[in-house]
Specification:
This protein has 172 residues and is mainly β. The chain is built from no helices and 14 strands. A 5-stranded mixed beta sheet has the order 4-3-2-1-9, with no helix packed on it. Strands 5-6-7-8 form a 4-stranded antiparallel beta sheet, with no helix packed on it. A 3-stranded antiparallel beta sheet has the order 11-12-13, with no helix packed on it. The chain starts with a strand and ends with a strand.
Length: 172
């Protein structure tokens, strides 16, 4: 069994297409592939690999999130949000008109780097930092040992709990 969703939209840099294809939807497991403009940006496999999850990704200066909501594959609801704007599958949406300031992403459980204030020497860069220990099982965590579940989300390698990523300004 295979099910797919497709979203087309325009940003100031042109048209984009995001797709989610779910294959092998059985009690033994599924494979989900997310594509952006024809390139695979995320693949996940497993029995519950797609249920109630968020898959964030960057599109230039914008943030996209594919979110799967409950139900077995045939009853699964899937959303795509770009900068917090909910897009409809199968229709073309203009998210940002050309020469318009992009909309800031809505608050989500997946952290994004804070926007830095411009200075005379350019923007101040930030970098991600994980806590030294899991808030659930208190096991040690590092950038190298965390299970990265997305470009900006991680889980504890010992108990699987989500880990809050914080953003630090370089030089502080």
């Amino acid at each position: 069994m295979s099910t797919s969703w497709t979203w087309t939209f325009s940003l100031e840099d042109g048209n984009h297409v995001v797709g989610l294809n779910v294959a092998g939807a059985t009690s033994w497991g599924t494979t989900g592939t997310i594509t952006l403009d024809g390139f695979t940006i995320h693949t996940t496999k497993g029995v519950n690999a797609l249920l109630n999850r968020e898959f964030p990704f960057k599109i230039g200066n914008h943030v996209g999130v594919v979110k799967t909501i409950s139900g077995f594959i045939t009853g699964m609801k899937v959303e795509l949000r770009v900068d917090g704007i909910l897009l409809q599958s199968g229709t073309h949406t203009v998210v940002v008109e050309p020469r318009q300031t992009p909309v800031q992403p809505a608050a989500s459980p997946t952290p994004t780097p804070p926007q830095s204030a411009p200075s005379s020497q350019g923007p101040v860069p930030f970098y991600p930092v994980l806590p030294p220990n899991c808030s659930n099982c208190h096991a040690p965590i590092s950038m190298n040992t965390a299970n990265w579940t997305g470009p900006m989300s991680a889980s504890c390698p010992h108990c699987g709990s989500g880990v809050e990523i914080q953003w630090k300004k370089i030089g502080e």
